[in-house]
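Anyone able to model this chain together with zinc ion?
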Amino acid sequence: MPLRFFNTYSREVEEFQPRDAASRKIDMYTCGPTVYSRAHIGNFRAYIFEDLLQRHLELRGYEVHRVMNITDVDDKTIHGAREAGVPLSKFTAQFKQAFFEDIETLRIKRADEFPAATDQRYIDRMIAMIGALISRGLAYQAEDKSVYFRINKFPDYGKLAHFDLTQLQSTGRVKHDEYDKEHIGDFALWKAWDEEDGEVGWESPWGRGRPGWHIECSAMATTLLGDQIDIHCGGVDNIFPHHEAEIAQSEGVTGKEFVRYWLHCAHLLVDGQKMSKSLGNFYTLPDLLEKGYTGPEIRYALMRVHYRTPLNFTWEGMDEARESLSRIDNWLERLRECSAGVQLAKLDKRQVGNLPHTFEEALDDDLNISAALGFLFETIRETNRAMDRKEFDAAKASAWLNWWNRINTVLDLEAETAELPAEIAKLAEARTQARLAKDFQTSDKLRDKIAALGWEVRDTKDGQKITRRAGEPA
Ligand code: AMP
Ligand code: ZN
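re: yes, here you go
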């Protein structure tokens, strides 16, 4: 089955045809963090969706070249640096570092490049692009000395967001980076320096100033990936004006179709509202780690619902994620025991049978992760039953482990085999001895002691399992 994705541009599920089908190489651009604060887990829903997309494309044999930009100069970062009373680069450095720590915890694959907007190479490209737009009549310098994109000279403006510009009232020009269709207008490409910018600014043919947010992405994307790219992603809030503006700027300069497939993920919500910094209803990754949840549990919680369906963040959802991962881990443990180290490579194909590709096929269908996970858990149920009935042999167990290894290149959810801290390990061993001696009073006391240290003990038919304990919801 061919891969199919919902393209925001056409509003249809389309068969995926990369530009260069023969080489199987794909260029992908994903809008990265604006480093004015620590990213919240809503942002990470978008990055995990992009990670899932990249990993599935790779599983299907594509070679993905991915760029994720870092927005380290815009209205918000400048405002933040001024409030903190530190230079812009110092202010953003701490959030860049935090971002890299967080993606590692969540096992998000690193992009091939993480260009930063303030790199002189890209500033030069932004200035060159703005110059080209002016020479084509698509941009102009206004009395306030800033340069704006002339939206009524670009007939396709509004096509990505499906806005009919003739129906909308223009409000003239908009200097700040974000606006909606109620305030539609020419957007800023180059913002003339003003006092609020302090030290921040670059010389340009239009005087000292700084780039608008949208031109940053057009410049970084076309510098690193060329005039045309296969896939461009972001959250739905990026569609307008950000991605609409990226199309106008890039196509205005190159005259070529900028992006073949636009993919956008729905928001992570809290009580029905978008999780966002401005609403103050957000959690960061450290907030969740402090409550005892692990990186893979958070990854799973943010990944498990189809990317175009809004996902409500709840603590019950986090606990379900923990439960699901522990089912996977217990299943893997049983399979490993049952396989008794049999090497699949040494087995005859007939001993193993053909394992289904249902998981991958669900992902081929516009990344239907819910169906893919549904199949995984059904498989776990069925193979567990077969193992209970002793109808499973080492060859079969080994084949399913192999299957898991294949799908886990996409999921990346296996628990870390982290060593227990020495103190916990000692208590755990004492508890095992107490249970063997049927001294359940001591065993319960030890469980409480372990719990007080932040670890949870569960007794399974394969012995006790110890995991970090989730804290109580705030
Ligand atoms: P920002 O740092 O605000 O530019 O956002 C970075 C990425 O996170 C963008 O792709 C946004 O669309 C996405 N994003 C922001 N808030 C949410 C949310 N609540 N749920 C999903 N994605 C989000
Ligand atoms: Zn962008």
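The mean pLDDT is 92.
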